[in-house]
Amino acid sequence: MNYSKQREIIYKTLADNVVHPSAEYIYEILKEANSNISLATVYRNLNKMASCGHIKKIEGLEDKAHFDHNTFEHYHFICQKCGKIYDIPKEIAPDIIQKTQNKTGFTINSHDIVFHGICLECKKE
Amino acid sequence: MNYSKQREIIYKTLADNVVHPSAEYIYEILKEANSNISLATVYRNLNKMASCGHIKKIEGLEDKAHFDHNTFEHYHFICQKCGKIYDIPKEIAPDIIQKTQNKTGFTINSHDIVFHGICLECKKE
DNA sequence: TTATAAACTGATAATTGTTATCAGTTTTGT
DNA sequence: ACAAAACTGATAACAATTATCAGTTTATAA
After folding, report:
1. Minimal Cα distance from A121: which residue of B?
2. Minimum-distance residue to C26 (CA–C1')
3. Which residues pair with B75 in a beta bridge?
4. Which pLDDT tens digit goes with each residue over A2-53?
5. Beta bridge partners of A36
6. How far is CA B40 from CA A73, B10, B46, B111, in A?
7. Taking a C-beta distance cutoff of 8 angstroms, is the pair B85, B106 a contact?
8. What is the mean pLDDT of each run of 10 residues along chain B (125 residues)?
9. Quick check: B114 and B66 in contact, CB under 8 A?
10. Residue A26: left (phi > 0), alpha (psi -120 to 50), or beta?
11. Nearest by CB to A88, which of B79, B100, B117?
């Protein structure tokens, strides 16, 4: 993979964002900053970085895919009211890979856990 | 919800299938059986049954959604080689809801776990 | 350095999975 | 048997993503 200025900008935009943005959302931020980076380039580079493990792709939320620069193992919670995505620490499911491999004999390369529910903020209301 | 002959056929097609089919796949089976059920009806009814808990919708695999008539709590493994989807028993992650609720204070309504890797069949080759 | 191949880009057309629409049909409760 | 509600097939519309393509940038090595 070669260096590209656009990829660097896309990664920084992702990393600086507290949220877990979609490709579209990153594209909008870049457009407002007059970066002149096309939507196709955003998709291309997010997917490229995800497939080489530099970032994480979060699928199965609504329709869109979201991206996460936080690559240490963790899970996600999506609020059914506000739509916000929260990180969940991996300690909630200890030895999950080992247990599953033992039980099935399959080789596990990755796994994702997604919770749906209502976050604290939205419960207050 | 009213009774519908098409919905019954769609459910039976789903239940009789060992695999976890997509809407498209069910539609193809029905078409071969000359059922004359339209793709829209397949989508409509799978979604309807999923939202009332009669079946399960599995999202976040590749692009398509898949469906599962097995509604007891369990997880999924998708083989990166053959694409087959396997059921994983819920025992691999005991108390996962309780733990996550305690840790976050969020209310959890549902959760999904998806593993990616290589299944036994494909490892043999 | 410059030449060259490979990897990249923006713009946009194309694709794909899914949903909406709509006129007509079934189902259900009275 | 009748009206209201829920359903249907056909197909247009939609939204997210990917493919295409001519031109540009990057890495390599003579």
Report:
1. B106
2. B4
3. B88
4. 999 999 999 999 999 878 999 999 999 999 999 999 999 999 999 999 999 9
5. none
6. 39, 12, 10, 27
7. no
8. 97 90 96 96 98 91 88 93 92 97 96 94 93
9. no
10. alpha
11. B100
Nearest-angstrom CA–CA distance, B58 and B63: 11
Nearest to B96 by CA among A112, A44, A91: A91
Question: Going by DSSP bridges, is the β-strand pair B107-118/B74-79 parallel, antiparallel, or unpaired?
Answer: parallel
Quick check: helix, strand or coil at residue A108?
strand
3-state SS, A25-89, equals HHHHHHHHCCCCCCHHHHHHHHHHHHHCCCCEEECCCCCCCEEECCCCCEEEEEECCCCCEEEEE
Helix axes B5-16, B23-32, angle to 10 degrees: 100
Which residues of chain A make contact with B105, given a CB cutoff of 8 A?
120, 123
Q: What is the C-alpha to C-alpha distance for residues B49 and B10, in angstroms, rounded to an integer?
A: 10
pTM attached to this predicted model: 0.90
Q: Is the distance between the Cβ of A6 and the closest atom of strand C smaller than 7 Å?
A: yes
Partner A, chain B 29-68, Cβ-Cβ below 8 Å: 59-61
**B50: its two tokens:** 């999923």
